[in-house]
Amino acid sequence: MTEKTATPEDLTRLLPALARQAVESYVREEKTVKVGSEDAIFKRNLGVFVTIKKGSSLRGCIGYTEPPWPLGITLIRAAIASATEDPRFPSISPRELDDLVYEVTILTEPREIHINDDKDLGNIRLGRDGLMIDSYGRRGLLLPQVALEEDFGAVEFLDATCEKAGLMPGCWKSKGTKVYIFEGIVYKEYL
């Protein structure tokens, strides 16, 4: 039996729809939805982040870089966590649900890079690569689209990722700090 394989157009519809369904079911009824698709991509272990926006304002963003579960389960967990556990925001309420837009970012496996001088900054492809900083037990991650949304250069993107980890800008220059890049494919809900 051949597994179904979704087209990019299918995924643009399926992934944000599953995130929306997961959040709405959990916020309204405290129920966790099941993965409704038999598509092969939902069975792969892939990193995923779910971003929830209200208008142009961020309302929640949580994900997993190296999940132990298949994508379908990981996406559902990330969506619910984005809505209810992002420490920057109060939990999403039922009255907000109709005003939210969902964005799902599928991640490639993070790959360590070394930045020894300015020419190494070119290893970061702004808009295509996301960044993860790991330093002294603290970790920060910014998705690829953040560099474009904030109009960051490579140094600003690295500094912002340090700050996301709760560290000082420039921490990426320290010997004890590891810098990783990953690619992200964004599937945004269009209403």
Automatic annotation (TrEMBL):
Lineage, broadest ranks: unclassified sequences, metagenomes, ecological metagenomes
Pfam families the record matches: AMMECR1 (PF01871)
Biological source species: mine drainage metagenome
Gene3D superfamilies the UniProt entry points to: Hypothetical protein ph0010, domain 1, Hypothetical protein ph0010, domain 2
Sequence ranges assigned to domain AMMECR1 in this UniProt record: 10-191
Name of the featured protein: AMMECR1 domain-containing protein
HAMAP family: AMMECR1
